[in-house]
Fold:
Amino acid sequence: SAMAYDGVAARSVGGAAAGVDQSILVSGESGAGKTETVKIMMGYLASVAGQTDGVVVKRVLESQPLLESFGNAKTVRNDNSSRFGKFTQLEFDATARVGGGDPPLVGSRCRTYLLEKSRITGQAPGERAYHCFYGVARGRSNSRLDLKQQRFTAKGDLATNKIEGMSDPDRFAKTWDALRLVGVEDNERDAIADLLEVTLLLGDVDVEATSTEQGEGSKLLEDAASTKASQALGVNAEALGKALTERTVKARNETFKVPLTQQQARDARDALAKEIYVRTFDYIVGKINTATSSGDVDRAMRVVGLLDIFGFESFAVNRFEQLCINYTNEKLQQKFTLDLFKTVQQEYDEEGVPWTHVAFPDNAAVLTLIEGRMGIIDVLNEECVRPRGSDEGFVSKLTTLHGTESTRYIPHKMNRDQFTIKHYAGDVTYTAHHWLERNTDALPEDLAGVARSSSFTMLASLFSSSVVTTKTKGKLVKDTVCTKFKAQLTLLMEEIERTTVQYVRCVKPNSIKSSSHYDVEMVVDQLRCAGVIEAIRVARAGYPNKLPHAEVPRRFGLLCDTSGSTLQLCKSLIGEELATQKRDGPYAVGSTRVYFKAGVLEALERRRADALGERAIVVQARWRQIRHTRRYNNAKQGAKKVQARHRRYIARRVYLKTKAAAILAQSARRACVARKRVAALRRNRAASRVAAAWRGRKEQRAYSKLRTNAVTIQKVQRRRAAVALFV
Structure:
């Protein structure tokens, strides 16, 4: 995708737009990741391109999940299998440069191919119909569907309600939001949901066998299912019954009714259901294109086309659809082969490299068998217009025309309705069962008329378009599926031819949907079917390896001492056997590149690896020397540090021991002095107490004596005073 965008964004030397249209062809078998790859590439292209309108870009990106909802279904190989092919063209405005940068994404267009109709009316065990049916049945509030009761879905897988982690109601809501984004109004979305319900309700309509004057006939069962379906269709039940059980035949100026058998009536019912769904799908595709297309024819547009197409298919029973799919892959393989050799030849011519023609598988004979004059398509179309054409008659005519003349056609000896085609990817045996019906794909005009007269507005509008006809042998007949598909494929190949093509091959690692298992045999088979192995074989037959001139001395100059031109270096390395126009050699020197035969570059790379290995050994030895020297020095420094710390430890221990002894001696001395001081203090204290006691007693005795004398004096004085007072 990056190369494709560079191609559309290219400018000339003067700055003018010089981009060219691009195509990316994505192929692979179901479940290989084609759809996811296309979405990734679309997201990348939208992100790297300048954007002038974010709404348009969002519509472009959301259109893919919307198409998945209506065109994808669960199969035994893939839970989200695309049951149709699509070619999406992203439109870039080459003249408008956002901010002077790259061209912006301004729109897209989508074209679809071969929608699988048979899945609408029935599915194999373990498979489902299209996602949208389950979304409407389980996500619409007023749905009229009961999937277990609907004939078209009852035999499929009803236990699964999530696909890739998204439930059916959530997918329904997302789908309806995407419809709104692309411009579908609310009433139109409701009508689309009604059309999906009508498609499944038709499956419950049944007929019973009857006898008429003209032979076996049928009659509509007048039950609740037919009433419900006719009401949903917006038609009268009686009119629906007549359209299902009778066919109008016009012969010259006369018109008459032909009764249909029970099986024919049921086939007509299924054909109507398929046609309603197909036209609904085409209507949605048209709405997407209207919403996403730029619509400006005056712009200088450049497009990147993304083709998501079915891979080569070969099953136990291969039907009409497998022939169309393998026919498509034959056309794409022819384009791939021609591009491969055209590119290689053009490069060799531009470089002036001599080369010889290499045989490659040419599938032109297969394409002639399928699409050539009186090929399979012509014979099938011719058998369809024969009054009593049959599948066995078709195979018989093919055997008569090609059984002995074509080496690609192998008639089956046991079964008259089988034949084998030798495709590029292998032999495929086809079973021609109901091929004429599937190729005609004709909806009875009576049922188409009933649909056009419906009171259901959208249903009537879908069937209002005219039917394309082709003139064959003087008669106007409806285009068959083969004719329309061949025309579509031719137009597709013409558009691809006008572009620069890139190829993407998606490979499925296993068939059990496991992310941890790798089936080598299955992968190789896919590579073979995709033509990759054959392309590698052819590429290796020429000059599979190449290097720019500047790269040769840079990579291999160490192998020799020669200094000079690239040619001289190659002669010194490889030898004198240079490839010329007259002889083949192991290498050739072009104007800008050197080309090597198979094995030559590998041998040089081995010699280079050996030389680098020898130098690496020297480097490693020197590095080991440096490493060990560094390790020794580190060890030496470490030993010195250990020794110093040990000596410090010993000295410190001696010091601490001496210090402790000194402290102990000092403590003893101080204790002795302290004891003496305490004893002296105690003596002084005792002496002080004795002296104090003695002085106290002495003073007490003196005080008592003075007190006694004072009392005596006071007594004498009071007595004298009393005597004097008395006298």
The first strand starts at residue 22 and ends at 27.
